[in-house]
Amino acid sequence: MVFKMRTYKRKTDRANISKDLIKQAASEVINGTSIRKAAKNNKIDRTTLSRYVNKLKATPDSDVFMDMQTLAKFFRINKNAY
């Protein structure tokens, strides 16, 4: 008897926020807008925005907004290095 794995189907589009929208909201916060106001204007959860702003302030020169494909490629390359 062979069992077939089911394909996961996401039921909502919750937490699918574009990187550009988060970058825009984070830059508003860094330029002086409150986190709550920037989150409300851009329709982002304020906790999520706060987390990204804190990461951006901690390491301003790095790219906090890497996408999952870039990360997957990075880990595949490093895994093969060992």
Automatic annotation (TrEMBL):
Show where the HTH psq-type domain sits.
22-54
Q: Name one GO cellular component term.
A: nucleus
What is the top-level taxon of the source organism? Eukaryota
Q: InterPro entries, per this entry?
A: Homeodomain-like_sf, HTH_Psq
Q: Which residues form a coiled coil?
A: none
Name one matching Pfam family: HTH_psq
Intracellular or extracellular location(s):
Nucleus
GO: which molecular function terms? DNA binding
Tell me the protein's name: HTH psq-type domain-containing protein
Its source organism is Acanthoscelides obtectus (Bean weevil)
